[in-house]
Amino acid sequence: MKHVELMDISKSYDKQTNVLDEINLSINKGEFFVLVGPSGCGKSTLLRMVAGLEEITGGVLKLNDEVANHLPPKNRNLSMVFQNYALYPHLTVEQNILFGLDVKRVNKKEQKRRLMETAEMIGLSELLKRKPKELSGGQRQRVALARSVVSEAPLCLMDEPLSNLDAKLRAHMRVEIRRLQRKLGLTMIYVTHDQVEAMTMGDRIMVLNDGKVQQVGKPITLYNEPANTFVASFIGSPKMNMGKAELFVENRQIKVEDKLTFHLSPSDLIHIPADKKTMIGIRAEHIYPATEQDATNYLEVVGVEQLGNETIIVFEELGGHLWNAKWPGQWAINLGDKVPVNISVQNFCFFDAENGQLIQPAYQEQNQEQEVIAQ
Amino acid sequence: MNTESAMPFEYNQVHFEELKKQQRKKVFLKGLLFLLPSLLLFSIFIFYPMIRTVYLSFFLTNQAGITTVFVGMQNYIDIFTSPIFMKSLTSTFLFVLFTVPGTIIVSLFLAVIANEKIKGIGFFRMIFSSTMGVSVAAASVFWLFLFHPSIGFFNKILVTFGFDKIGWLTNPEWALASVSLSTIWMNIGFTFLIILGGLQSIDSHLYESANIDGAGFFYKLRRITIPMLSPTLFFVVTVSIINSFQTFGQIDMLTKGGPSNETNLIVYSIYREAFVNYQYGTASAQAVILFIIILIMTVIQFKLGERKVHYQ
Predict the structure, then answer these.
(1) Is there a single domain that holds both residue B46 and residue B115?
(2) For residue B217, how far is the Cα from the chain centroid?
(3) B48 and B169 in one domain?
(4) A192: helix, coil or strand?
(5) What sections of the protein cross the membrane (chain B) (predicted)?
(6) What Å distances lie between residue B125 and A305, B117, B128, B196, B308, CA to CA?
(7) Which residues of A fall within a CB distance of 8 Å from B205?
(8) Are B137 and B235 contained in the same domain?
(9) Cα nearest neighbour of B203 on chain A
(10) Is A68 on the interface with B (CB under 8 A)?
(11) CA B4/CA B2 separation, integer angstroms
């Protein structure tokens, strides 16, 4: 069942340029939906429009199948967690959590019951009498969460709620928010600029750039079949390696940035698009280490990042960008070395050289997926 | 073995101590150098007159202000037994009671409505704060016309509605209220500006969060705006009280302390005592009393107020 539906939603501040351009989207009940994009792409604005804090310039917003454009925030039956938490600094944690219930004149007994339940669930029972300034960043975040939970609103909006936390706490809160959302069956719209958060938390993700929808889909779909070069480079870390490619059918060759040459097998020729000029992308984990025998290419190393369990090798520039490879384990490689690598054309994503739209995703992936399913 | 290793260590420490002492001395001297200009100015214009005032309050003086006879506490005894000074004290307290809450309530109201994001709000903000740019003398002349018994705006209105004319500045029952009214008007600009500044520093997310919860205007005012504004309000109240106690200009322009000493506020009383009656001794004693009153009021405010003020 659809909970939130956006039809041709646009936003413009000066009536000339749209900061959001005809967004179409529907979010199901109980879904964890992530809006992700670089800063200034309009994702927060979109969220605030759903909340009713921002005027909708054009289009129709439906909540529970009813038009909600005109509704004030309080009648939309939702809760919101702000990036800076928006806790009332002069009120205690308890008063902060109960603020919304007090506004709605929920009776004291019911307030108490919900407070205890929520505090228990979120682990704030010990802190109820404290003021926000006596709390750590993580605890403040919990209070903001509790405020949203205690309202029992079926739709929860979150605007970059984890961006003020340190990396460790962020990873922890990611799991916790996700667990809470499942437990309470909330419909969640979650805004972030962090693609890792988007990938790990979302049931579905919408990638936004310059006020336009780039792609909507499951995290894995976005990763494997990015709709265009923007999504390809935005989703995944390190980002997808990209380069201009030229196909020479007669020689059964494909050349990337005039530097890397790949020979094509007959089956490759069937699978890859026939366009002469394309943009190709390959994930860092698909540039494999190779021995002298199975090396397809040699690349010069300009940087090595040791992460312990894996090693990121940064290669020379190809088409203005450094290429990255991610190899499992620890590799002792010297800068300036030319190392043999194995790159397979099967792992290439092909994009249109002109508009950057996906022509064909990596077909190796599809095979692997099918294998997994077959097993 | 222990002593061997300890010896040079101790020696070093003594050496460091000495160096540190020298450095501290240098820093202190440098600090003093920076303080010197303000110390000098304060001494000439604040500390010296203050000490001189206290000194004078124990003496009788001639017309030139030269001390003649030491009278000890006699000046204080005199002013506290003088009905005119007691009247002046009560008038002053009443005046403070009228003007401070009046100014703050009106300014708060204006600031809250001027804090809305509407087109052209800048114009209203300018108008509301404009009284700050009007000098007391100019404003008093303006109010003098408003209060004028025959051609004044207020009396004209009263007459149009069929009421009797009021001697705004000449009727003992009305004079203090009239002066208070004009003072409130004059103080609004400054207070409005400070309160507006305070309002604008409140995080707008707090209101958005309250909007989502469905809080109404007055609920937000009571539970967010006022508490978040408390440091600003506290500052404004303190400054307003001190200002009110020190009111002089509009009294001199509008009523000259009359009618029948009804508006003879303490600073005006000091002025008259010193520069009209040439009683520098009693004038100084009154000044000392004013200083003590303001000191006590401010201390009480800090003791009581600070507990309820929420600083972020």
Answers:
(1) no
(2) 31
(3) no
(4) strand
(5) 27-51, 93-114, 126-146, 174-199, 226-245, 283-302
(6) 57, 11, 5, 9, 29
(7) 82, 84, 86
(8) yes
(9) A86
(10) no
(11) 5
Is residue B67 a part of any domain in this protein? Answer: no
The number of domains in chain B is 2
Q: Are residues B100 and B199 in the same domain?
A: yes
Contact A284, A242 (CB under 8 A): no
Q: Is residue B74 part of a domain?
A: no
Residue A89, number of CB atoms within 10 A of its CB: 15
Chain B interface, best mutation among A47, A53, A98, A134, by max B CB count within 10 A:
A53
Alpha helices in chain A (DSSP H): 43-51, 93-103, 108-122, 137-150, 167-184, 195-201, 219-224, 229-234, 266-271, 363-374
Query: Does residue B39 share a domain with residue B141?
Result: no
Structural domain containing residue B293:
81-308
Together in a domain, B39 and B142: no
Name every residue whose Cβ is closer than 8 Å to that of residue B6 and which is 6 or more positions away in sequence. none
Query: Is B69 inside a domain boundary?
Result: no
- The Cα–Cα gap between A328 and A285 comes to 9
CA angle, residues B214, B216, B217, in degrees to nearest 5: 145
Same domain, residue pair B43 and B129 = no
Chain B residues with CB within 8 Å of chain A CB: 203, 205-206, 208-215, 219, 223-224, 227-228, 230, 310, 312
Contact list in A for residue B310 (CB cut-off 8 A) is 89-90
Mutate which: B213, B220, B232, vs A, most A CBs within 10 A: B213
- Confirm if B77 and B281 have CB atoms less than 8 A apart: no
Find the Cα–Cα–Cα–Cα dihedral A271, A273, A274, A278, rounded to 10°. Answer: -140
Of B212, B223, B310, nearest to A89 by CB-CB distance is B310
In this structure, the answer to whether residues B50 and B104 fall within a common structural domain is no
Number of neighbouring beta carbons within 10 Å of residue A55: 11
B213 → closest Cβ in A89, A100, A133: A100
Give residues with Cβ within 8 angstroms of A337, minimum separation 6: A300, A301
Domains, chain A, in order of start with CATH, read: 2-228 (3.40.50.300), 230-374 (no CATH)
Q: Does A78 touch chain B (CB under 8 A)?
A: yes
- Name the helix (H) or strand (E) containing A80: strand A78-81
Please list the pLDDT of chain A residue by residue as tens digits (375 residues): 788 999 999 998 888 888 888 889 999 999 999 999 998 888 889 999 999 998 898 889 999 888 999 899 988 899 999 988 899 998 999 999 999 899 888 889 999 999 998 888 888 888 899 998 889 888 898 899 899 889 888 999 999 988 888 888 888 889 989 998 998 899 999 999 988 889 999 999 999 998 889 999 999 999 999 999 999 989 988 889 998 888 888 888 888 888 888 888 888 888 788 888 889 999 999 999 988 888 888 889 999 999 889 999 999 877 788 899 999 989 888 888 889 999 888 888 899 988 889 888 887 545 554 444 444
Contact B280, B56 (CB under 8 A): yes
